[in-house]
Design brief:
This protein has 119 residues and is α/β, with parallel strands linked by helices. It has a single domain, classed as Rossmann fold. The chain is built from 4 helices and 4 strands; from the N terminus they run βαβαβαβα. The radius of gyration is 14 Å and the shape is globular. The N and C termini lie far apart (54 Å). This is Resolvase/invertase-type recombinase catalytic domain-containing protein.
């Protein structure tokens, strides 16, 4: 009997300037990222409305009801456009789902120098 696949959900936000081709590419990138780490994406939730969290709340509910503890996102900007806030939100989300929020692009590679936190 084959082992049960490790499930994850994907989430992405349609950021300003992203077109349908970009969203489709990000979707494919999430699938590839998850597969490379041994996950199967059960679904990808897309936040189509800027500054709304409807799809994000659906991800959290699905994680709880289906006992999925992994969520994959393209980059921290899909949480928040300010890197420090994105990191805080990532920590909060991981506590909420009781698992891991995987970022295909790290906070360090996506932060613009003018947005980086200063001591």
């Amino acid at each position: 009997m084959p082992p049960t696949p490790r499930l994850a959900y994907g989430y992405l936000r349609v950021l300003p300037g992203l077109g349908i081709d970009d969203v489709l590419r990000l979707h494919r990138d999430l699938v590839a990222f998850a597969e490379a780490r041994g996950f199967v994406l059960a679904d990808v939730f897309i936040e189509a409305q800027w500054q709304q969290l409807k799809a994000w709340h659906e991800v959290v509910v699905h994680c709880h009801t289906r006992n999925v503890r992994h969520v994959v996102m393209p980059s921290p900007e899909h949480l928040h456009t300010i890197p420090v806030l994105a990191e805080l939100m990532k920590d909060d989300v991981e506590r909420e789902i009781g698992g891991t929020l995987w970022l295909a692009a790290s906070l360090e590679t996506t932060a613009a120098p003018e947005q980086e936190a200063r001591p």
